[in-house]
Each structure stands twice: as C-alpha cells, then as structure tokens.
Amino acid sequence: MTYALLKSYTLSGLSGDDPRVQAAVKWIQQNWDLAVNPGSDPALGEKVKYQGLFYYYMVLAQALDLAGLKEVQVPGKPNDKGEATTTALDWQTALRTQLEGMQQKDGTWVNDKNRRWYEDQPLLCTCYALIALERCK
C-alpha cells in the first residue's frame, strides 16, 4: 500500500523533497520486489505474498510514473569492505520484463498463486497488467 500512498501524495501535489514522499520512496527502494507483493506478514504463510499481485503491479507503475521516478535505488551486493551498496534499477524495464514472463499463451495474465480479490480471473489481471504496461514506455 506504500505505492498507493505515494500515488496519493503525488496526486495531492506533494513534491519529491517532501519528507513523506521521501519516506515512501525509501521504503519502496528497501523492499523492492517484483516476484511477490512485498510487506506481507511471513506468519501468514507463503500464499499471502502473492495476494493482490497484479493490483500491486498496476499501482506500482502508476505511483512511480506519477512521481517522475525513472530509476529506483535497490539493495546491491556488499562491497569489498562488506558495506551495503545500492544499484540503480530502471523500474519500467524490470516491470515490463516481469509481466512479459507471466503472460499466458492466450495473451492474458492471471494470478495462479493466490486467487483472492478475483485475481484468478484473466479479465481482471489482464486489465491490471495492461494498465501497468502503459506506464512502462
């Protein structure tokens, strides 16, 4: 939901130097993941990681695009001294690649790992995926 928050901040006119926007972007960068919907409680089991996955992709794309972010700084490999590093990631390319790999043979998308919120419905997931891809130009 941090992406929805960032989207709301941007639509409300907050600038990128606002501490609330910076905190949302920091969380996004520290928890970057396209394989699962980040931030779920591990105590709830493996399946919960995939809950709302395609909605997540859609809101991720909308939020980062509206915020004007072309890259996110994601955790990288530790340097020679063992210190944490970051790597600039083109989120549009990464998301496009992720969605291309998930497309079904018939051209649709579907969440086959968690059907909650009707994400087992190809029509819904395909709409979410296409809206996300629209922001990945």
Q: What is the average per-residue confidence, as pLDDT, rounded to a whole number?
A: 95
> In this structure, how is the largest beta sheet organized?
2 strands, antiparallel
**How many individual helices?**
5
How much helix, percentage-wise, in residues?
A: 40-55%
Reading side by side through the largest sheet, how are the strands ordered? 1-2
SSE order, as H and E? HHHEEHH
C-alpha Rg, in Å? 16 Å
Overall 3D form: globular
Cα(first) to Cα(last) distance is 23 Å
Strand content: 5-15%
Structural class: mainly alpha
Number of strands: 2
Question: How many domains is the backbone divided into?
Answer: 1
Low-confidence stretches: none
Keywords:
two-stranded antiparallel sheet; 5 helices; mainly alpha; single chain; about 140 residues; globular
Could you characterize what this model shows?
This protein is mainly alpha-helical. Helix content is 45%, strand content 7%. It has five helices and two strands. Strands 1-2 form a two-stranded antiparallel ribbon. It is globular, with a radius of gyration of 16 Å.
Would you spell out the secondary-structure blueprint of this structure?
Blueprint: H1 2-11, H2 19-30, H3 53-66, E1 71-75, E2 86-90, H4 91-102, H5 122-134
Antiparallel strand pairs: 1-2
Helix pairs in contact: 1-2, 1-3, 3-5
Q: What would a concise description of this structure say?
A:
The protein is mainly α. The chain contains 5 helices and 2 strands, in the order αααββαα. The chain has one domain.
